[in-house]
Amino acid sequence: MTRPSPVVHFLYEPGNGGLDRVAILLANGMARRGLPTELWLTKATGAVADLIAPEVKVRMVPTPSLGPRGLRLFLQIPAVARMIREHRPRAIFSAGNQSNLSLAIARKLAGHGSTRIIQKITNPVLRPGSGRWARRYRTWRFGVTAAWGDMSLTLSTADARRYAKIYPDAADKFHAVPNPYVHPDMLVAGERRSARDRQHPPRLLCVGRIAAQKDYMTLLSALALIVDRPWSMTILGDGPLLEDTKRRAEVLGIAERIEFKGFVADVTSYLERSDILVLSSYWEGFPAVPIEAMATGCAVVATDCSEGLTELLQQIDVKTVPVRDPAALSRAIGEAMASPQPVDRLRACAAIYSIENSVDEHLRLLNQLCPIS
Left (φ > 0), alpha (ψ -120 to 50) or beta: where does 315 sit? Predict the structure, then answer.
């Protein structure tokens, strides 16, 4: 009997990024539906390695120990091509931007056209602040990537529309799909949430790497504008601007109200205990944390850093605020303190991103692209 062709999820490593967790959860979900499912990894160890289900077969991709991740992905292309020829996967899901093009090249090199390459665009093609030549290069590179792959998954319908417009020759390849951000514990936490006690100061939360993209300086400036009101803030994350951020909080006189907890692998308990999640980013692809917050019934205040997130929040009458505008952000936080967002609407909006629904949608697109004969 011929062995069924596996569905492969290609992931560089099971690290601490949201991309890594998503790839593993999708592989687990497909394996538990009875599909022969494999993870192809460059590194076997990492923060979320223990999430890999026993039903998922792990194969290591031989890779030279030379240079940064981008160079290693390029140098491993011949090895990936050999693995495609040997194992003949039905399809390979690329976890994110960096591996999209290298997998498409490997499939061409393998000469195994029946293996479908399903790419995922996890970060914007064009980012605010990029120079002219960087924008031209990225536009060209993503165009080649889309042309050489079979399907490009985006994290929101807004992104799918945008890329179809930028790349009209590949417009039919872009499909929006919900990522598996919401696990059952988050939805259970949302069911338990009760109305906020107005007698207690609102508990604010911010989650994310402390780097320029997340714009913690705007967050701190916004908080300093509402220092006359009671509140506390917990920040989960670390990064190159951690010490600068702490010093800025001291200068603004709000350091005693802010607790820095560092990187936390599972933020569910913090979301459950918080009243308002604040996202102050300058730009995002489609951020997971606001979705996770809504699943637990935690209100969300966010900048207009992601068109997809802005459209999603509009569905529940929550407006985003301009990026890099402390005054607008402080007003939005104050309004959320005064008028709590309805928990049921928050949870219903987030339920689309449950693990089960996400696996269903990825399988629907897989079967649309390469149905089982």
Answer: alpha
pLDDT digits (tens, 9 = 90+) for 275-289: 999 999 999 999 999
278: which strand partners?
A: 301
Distance CA 354, CA 298 (A): 16
Contact by Cβ (8 Å): 70, 89: no
Instruction: Mark out the alpha helices in the chain (DSSP H runs).
Output: 18-32, 69-75, 77-87, 97-110, 132-148, 157-166, 184-192, 216-224, 242-251, 268-273, 289-295, 307-314, 326-338, 343-350, 355-369
| pTM for the structure as a whole | 0.92
Tokens of 31: 């394996």
Phi, psi of 18 (to 5 degrees): -60, -35
The residues, any chain, with a CB within 8 Å of residue 365's CB and separated by 6 or more, are 118, 151, 153, 175, 177
Q: What is the mean pLDDT of residues 342-348?
A: 92
Q: Whole-angstrom Cα distance, residue 278 to residue 290? A: 8
User: Comparing C-alpha atoms, which of 56, 102, 95 is closest to residue 81?
Assistant: 102
